[in-house]
Amino acid sequence: MMGTLATVLAGKKIQTSEPLYRAEVEGDIENVNGVLKITTIRVRYHLKVAEDKVSDARECLSHYLPFCPAAQSVIGCIKIEDELIIEP
Questions:
Q1: 44 CB burial (10 A radius; 0-12, 13-18, 19+)
Q2: Which helix (H) or strand (E) is 86 found in, with range?
Q3: CA neighbours within 13 Å on the CB side: how many for 72?
Q4: Nearest 5°: CA angle at 58, between 44 and 54?
Q5: pTM of this prediction?
Q6: Is the pLDDT of residue 38 over 90?
Q7: Nearest by Cα to 60 from 1, 3, 6
Q8: What is the pLDDT of residue 8?
Q9: Could you tell me which of 69, 71, 56 has the C-alpha nearest to residue 8?
Q10: pLDDT in tens, 41-55
Q11: Which residues in 29-39 are b (16+ Cβ under 10 Å) and which e?
């Protein structure tokens, strides 16, 4: 997911090198009918970006998932929550 978002950001000329871009990921595992199942994945992307690119970055977050092989493999059985945190 992180790589797909980076690719979409690159299309808007937003850099995603290591000091500028990172992600925190966590998930929930629940007992569903006696079987442990991953039910939710939460991804918090952190991006350092110029003020004039913030709108572009938020737009990228809103439409990258349909292009992401990992997300498309689990959507429908695992809830994906993502957010973009813009850092100074």
A1: middle
A2: strand 79-87
A3: 8
A4: 105
A5: 0.91
A6: yes
A7: 6
A8: 98
A9: 56
A10: 999 999 999 999 999
A11: eeeeeeeeeee
Residue 41's domain spans which residues? 2-87
Residues with Cβ within 8 Å of 23's Cβ and at least 6 positions away in sequence, in order, are: 1, 2, 43, 44, 45, 46
Closest listed residue to residue 71, CA positions, set 82, 59, 57 = 82
Beta bridge partners of 40: 28, 79
Bridge partners of 32, per DSSP, are 35
CATH number, domain containing residue 34:
3.30.300.20
Residue 88 has pLDDT above 90, yes or no: no
Residue 74 CB coordination number (10 Å): 14
Average pLDDT on 27-45 reads 97
Compute the distance between CA of residue 34 and CA of residue 13 in angstroms, rounded to an integer: 47
Domains held by the chain: number: 1
